[in-house]
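User: My notes are a mess, but here's the protein and fe (ii) ion's SMILES. Can you give me a structure?
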Amino acid sequence: MNYTELFYPPRFAVGPGSIQAITDFTKEANLTCALIVTDAFLASAPVMAAVTDVLKKAGIPYYVFDRVISNPDAATVDRAAALYTEKKCDHFIAVGGGSPIDVAKGASLVAANGGAIQHYIGVNRTVHQGVPVIAVNTTAGTGSEVTRAFVLTNRENHTKAVSLDHHCLVAFAVSDPQLMLDLPGEVTAATGMDALSHAVEAYCAVNHNPFTDGLSLQSAGLVNGALLTTLHEPYHLDSRTDMCWAAALAGYAFSNSGLGLIHSIGFQLENICPVPHGQAVGLFMPYVMDFHRQAIPERIADLGVACGFTDKSIAAKQVVAHFYEMITAAKIPTLREVGFRADDIPALAAMAMEDPTLATNPVQPAVEEVEEIITRAYCNDLQ
Ligand SMILES: [Fe+2]
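Assistant: No problem, the inputs look usable. Here's the predicted complex:
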């Protein structure tokens, strides 16, 4: 047997005003009591008021779990699940970016399967579909609103674990660009780079297929056309909407084809330096793509064509240089600026070699090659 199975959430509302679609969904699904999962900052932000206004109009009572921190851990997931059970809720509403959405997805598995999230870290470890999660996305980047992945950090050994489970796909995703207009530029840039890196890695991954290829190329083109405009004009609704699409398409893509070396190094950098995920992957993206020009020149060239470089014979080199310029224009910090030291290059390379996302990288690199990629990034050497 050599077939492909696709995973994506059953319903997804995208565009200005899509937050209102929660009303119809909760009615149709007969949902009666929500546990909102968010962080302390968003709990008092206008986006939270927008969500609770919709719930009040729909007559849905709710409780709030606002203790999500960035890079959430298993204990946070278990606490959210315990509050859900204690308050007799029947669905979660995640409000935020990747961290609150991942916590809600994990807690939904615990609520439906019992025990603790630790039992379900890995690949498809659950028996039952998670309880319904509505994901209200407040950033355009992680794609968590549409993926079957959740990422948890182990604070004792400073490692991140990416779990895959189709039972944690959300029941309903909302990406409303009107909720993102006041997002700080630094967050817009980092999450946008995360979306672009998902598009690149999903297109290059060994498990790519026609479904993920189309989504990846479309996503890369959208980020290329919209991200810098969004940074220069934060209230540009069309560009924000394009970024919502880009993040979702890239999320659909990598959830079905996998990631690769950009994330292998990026995830592990986060275990060494306190750097936001989007920055961590963004700063390695051009160097990994340049490395991939040896093994998969055609596919890197395709990404260039998707970004407007029409001469395919030189599009691969052009898109690598172009993404480097985008990263600079988006003010993504350099490796030195995030506090990384040259002494840590061998350790980071060794850690990246053990990262599970490397399994779907187009080639299995030698540790020396990974060290060279990191060294080039450290030296800003993209010649
Ligand atoms: Fe990512």
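Residues 183-378 form a domain with the Dehydroquinate synthase-like, alpha domain fold (CATH 1.20.1090.10).
User: Great, I'll file this with my notes.
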